[in-house]
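OP here, attaching both records as promised.
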Amino acid sequence: MVNAARPSRADYYQVLADRLPANALVVTSLGNASYLWAAMHHAPENFYVEDAMGLALPLALGLAIAQPARPIFVVEGDGAVLMHLGALVTIGAVAADNLTVLLIQNGVHAASGGQALTNAGLDLAQLARSAGIARAENVATPEAFAAAMGAAKTGHGARVLVLSTKPDIEVVRPPITLDPVLTKHRFMSAIGAPRYVPTLFGGGRLAHD
């Protein structure tokens, strides 16, 4: 739950950058979730979601299923997860051991101007547990986050770490242009995904270049 004296998103991101496994894939949601991560730890293995509020979790779950040997981390916001609660239920049902959800709880819709959530103090870890995600906990400090990052990561389904943060309304300027098409092709190359070639009458094929 949101506490009174909260760390910044950058505080948590520094821990993530320092402790991220070498073969990890990171999905970040729209706004500063992507902009700040790109500024602090840009890599081809990052997938920056743009203009698709609430869809970072489904994308990350698909990656966790398709790339079972890789740790998958996804950064989503409290407003976005409340918009798409079905994603939590699906994550609980699939129980992908390699998926870690980092849920930023800042109490506002930061990407759209800082409007307050309808229930900013909701216990999102408890909500995740009720959706079938047993390994869900509230995290109030970067030190606690570092300890959680060092804990066992496999064998018990997905994890949800709810990171209590102060709002970051001022937009961070990323070091690169976050063009969705460029992001997709760069990410596909990084994970060795075959290129999809559409056909005139539907269907298509996978091209292994």
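Record two, same layout:
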Amino acid sequence: MDNRAVFIDTVTCREEQAWNAAQLDEPVTEPRMRLWTYRAPGVVLGCSQGALRERLDGAHTLAGAVVQRGSGGGAVLTGPWMVSASIVLPPAHPLLGRGTLSSYRWLGALHAGLLRDIGIAAYAIPPEEVRLREADGGLKWACYGGVSPWEVVVGRRKIVGLAQLRRRTGVLLTSGTLIGRPDWPLLCDALGQPPADAALLEERTTSFAEQLGAPILAEVLAERLHHMLTDVLGAAADATVACPPTPRAQRQFFLSH
């Protein structure tokens, strides 16, 4: 019998977004969180990207796996190469700081610290550095085509993206960490973007697998992220663990070929 803890749900992007959307329907009274990875590729568009969605060819393999989220930003290609987090907080929670931008700082710092602990030279990029970087307006359609304050980078390459949705009932913070190389040509093809954009996205992003020279299990990263988030949010957010992890689950970090 497998007694390992379950720290992550394997879902479609539609299932993830349905859970996210439902969280702010009623007032949030205590922190909640879920961690996700994906059984198949999908596209999550920003709330203002309705016109981009209309470019999809109905016959395209991803046409049925496209959903719009309530928050802004560019398109995200979900898939087995990503581990995501959804964190729901009451509107007056102290981690939300004084506004939208400052609300990201703790989450970016937490992810960057996790990566550094593993040996990846990552950091959460501050607003003043973002302003100094040259932006490529041609890649605004893609979330990972650029960086926003407190997202996580390795050098000049993005590895963790962040998003936020604020309502009177509460705030949803989300993150997406690249654990493997995304299929950027698939995303460009699905959304009718120039094929050259795939090479640009490859240049501007990196992943756990690339940085460490070996693939990582989504479940193992999720375990570490879960413990860090629980330490910050408190036991009230710890609602996804089925049972204690076994020593084997604690030891296994890389997935060998």
